[in-house]
Amino acid sequence: MRLNRIPARSWLLALYVLTIVIVAIGKAYGQRGPDNNFVIFRWSFLNLASGADMYAAQPQHHADLYKYSPSFAVLFAPFALIPFALSLALWDALNALLLFFAVDKVLPSRQAAIALALIYLEMLRSMQRSQSNSLVTALVILAFLAFERRQQLGAAFAIAVGAAVKIFPLAALALAIFYPRRIRFALMMVVATAVVLALPLLVVSTSGLAAQYQSWRAVEAVDALSVGGGGGGGLYGGVMQQLRLIFGVSWPNWPVQLAGTLLLMSPLARWRKWEYASFRMRFLCALLVYMVIFNHQSESPSFVIAVTGIAIWFVSTPRSWWHTTVMVLTILVVSISSTDITPKSWQQNFFVHYRLKTIPCTLAWLTMMWELLAFRPSESGEAHELDVTTAQAIAHVG
User: Do 105 and 250 reside in the same domain of the chain?
Assistant: First the structure.
């Protein structure tokens, strides 16, 4: 087979796999060693199974605190009980390849290849930190695909597992409004949530699990009260922190988050547009960006979620100078600014100091919201259903 006949998707898959191997070997055997996040994840299950408080400081094992759910610790058990290097490689593979699979399934092959290339640097950054952001992104996209296939139980479990990893994937519940039999889905969501929440009972008693949830609530309460710039908030702190930097004020996160949520949900009032696949796809993209720019705990590895949403939006909507400008700004400011191409002094004194990664994502999100509010079916053809295998219903849009 000639090299020029090999599909771009195959080249990208090879790149993703090669990256997994290189990063895993570097972290397992390099001088710097594995990221602290991965060590925390491994110890979470061991602490849960032994009855120790997972949310207490454990400087003898790792820095920082465990902040995920008890259910995530159980879900991570397969990675905690195997040799370290293998565990690290498989964890990286799960995150990267599930994201690859989800994007590949939600878009036609050509658009998927472009989107996967656009999100590569963000996927790599999240992998280098052993973060779960790529996994969470994939689960939200897979929930959307399950809804499109009318597989409500699959959508419910994708959302429930995503929420067990990080709470904010619960925002994907908003996708359910597009599809029929909502009461049936609500019941399935209750069942899926109950199953996921009960997973720790496989290794701890009811009272022990209650104590873990109490500790977790205390940790999350501290983060919820944070106003950014430390004290439990993420480095970037979303739109909330950006507004503090611009206006020099200090206010709680929730009013801005509430305003963002209301704006996100406002296009849903146009219920006659729900039947159009392009409208639903645009809302999915806006949802992914929203999960980062209105998250007060957002950090650099979190932006793979937002960039994935922007990349899918870019390749699945009509091309325009503004769309291209926003996509280029996203790549330059969000992705390339954190690489060795950018001088360290620029990174720290400009991009990080002013939390600039939030700005192009916010521009993209506001554009998506405008386009949802002004959506006309003629812009995207007459397709009502998304072909979840090849997405041919929207292939001609780009």
Answer: no
